[in-house]
Amino acid sequence: MEANTRSTGRLPAAFLTPGSSSFMDFLTGHQPDMLPGNRQLPPTQGVIEAPHGTTIVATTYPGGVVLAGDRRATMGNVIAQRDIEKVFPADEYSAVGIAGTAGLAVEMVKLFQLELEHFEKVEGATLSLEGKANRLSTMIRSNLGMAMQGLAVVPLFAGYDVDRAKGRIFSYDVTGGRSEEKGFAATGSGSVFARGAMKKLYRDDLTEEQATTLVVQALYDAADDDSATGGPDVARRIYPIVTVISEEGFRRLTEEETSEVARSILARRLEQPDGPRAALL
């Protein structure tokens, strides 16, 4: 499939033949070994140690959706990286947060970005948010063989549905099973604690500022109970990645904006170490 323009000056026929609008289908037909799920792993004994990304959270608000992630990657009981990137734009109106085997997850996100771009170029239109969620589900399912060997990828997908004029969140399992979440969602090793925090603080009428504060609060609570989740690191100036997706498109909060939210939460935690209290009734 590789282009050999030095000898003929022309692209191979595979690049010129009309076909599917799916970039994955194109690779499957012409060079399947390039797909992550088709790679053969050597026989191994025991658990494969590889850097893993942890805790991704998302919440909707009337104007869109907020997707955020902590910055820590772990390898067993060791912190492999303190400032890993876990949240990526998929296209103008959607984003993916990765949890699981970091290397495979980043590769899957890049392939997903190509998939959406390829569809738009071939069809002349963008996929619906539902269609994007389904395409990502197919990619996760193709990685099932590696997931069974301990190299799982479990992302969180969020975006602004321009047809319904609202933010939506989709979660997945290792088999590619897809579920739409209502209000908020979390994945990764600290998801249990993050979900518990959001469950008590979420409301339907949050502003964008309140939604961004909510996800950072949830990540702080996850880091408080889960050793694989990293909280705001003021000394190293490492803060969670927080993204907002609205009718204006994808936007990542600047470091100044994120640090301001994180520092305000840290200041409040000096008085209330366990975080804000929800009303009993």
UniProtKB/TrEMBL annotation:
<dbReference type="InterPro" id="IPR022483">
    <property type="entry name" value="PSB_actinobac"/>
</dbReference>
<dbReference type="GO" id="GO:0004298">
    <property type="term" value="F:threonine-type endopeptidase activity"/>
</dbReference>
<comment type="pathway">
    <text>Protein degradation; proteasomal Pup-dependent pathway.</text>
</comment>
<keyword id="KW-0378">Hydrolase</keyword>
<dbReference type="InterPro" id="IPR000243">
    <property type="entry name" value="Pept_T1A_subB"/>
</dbReference>
<feature type="propeptide" description="Removed in mature form; by autocatalysis">
    <location>
        <begin position="1"/>
        <end position="53"/>
    </location>
</feature>
<keyword id="KW-0647">Proteasome</keyword>
<keyword id="KW-0068">Autocatalytic cleavage</keyword>
<feature type="active site" description="Nucleophile">
    <location>
        <position position="54"/>
    </location>
</feature>
<dbReference type="GO" id="GO:0005737">
    <property type="term" value="C:cytoplasm"/>
</dbReference>
<comment type="subunit">
    <text>The 20S proteasome core is composed of 14 alpha and 14 beta subunits that assemble into four stacked heptameric rings, resulting in a barrel-shaped structure. The two inner rings, each composed of seven catalytic beta subunits, are sandwiched by two outer rings, each composed of seven alpha subunits. The catalytic chamber with the active sites is on the inside of the barrel. Has a gated structure, the ends of the cylinder being occluded by the N-termini of the alpha-subunits. Is capped by the proteasome-associated ATPase, ARC.</text>
</comment>
<protein>
    <recommendedName>
        <fullName>Proteasome subunit beta</fullName>
        <ecNumber>3.4.25.1</ecNumber>
    </recommendedName>
</protein>
<dbReference type="InterPro" id="IPR023333">
    <property type="entry name" value="Proteasome_suB-type"/>
</dbReference>
<keyword id="KW-0888">Threonine protease</keyword>
<dbReference type="InterPro" id="IPR029055">
    <property type="entry name" value="Ntn_hydrolases_N"/>
</dbReference>
<comment type="function">
    <text>Component of the proteasome core, a large protease complex with broad specificity involved in protein degradation.</text>
</comment>
<dbReference type="InterPro" id="IPR001353">
    <property type="entry name" value="Proteasome_sua/b"/>
</dbReference>
<dbReference type="Pfam" id="PF00227">
    <property type="entry name" value="Proteasome"/>
</dbReference>
<keyword id="KW-0963">Cytoplasm</keyword>
<comment type="similarity">
    <text>Belongs to the peptidase T1B family.</text>
</comment>
<dbReference type="GO" id="GO:0010498">
    <property type="term" value="P:proteasomal protein catabolic process"/>
</dbReference>
<dbReference type="GO" id="GO:0019941">
    <property type="term" value="P:modification-dependent protein catabolic process"/>
</dbReference>
<keyword id="KW-0865">Zymogen</keyword>
<keyword id="KW-0645">Protease</keyword>
<dbReference type="GO" id="GO:0019774">
    <property type="term" value="C:proteasome core complex, beta-subunit complex"/>
</dbReference>
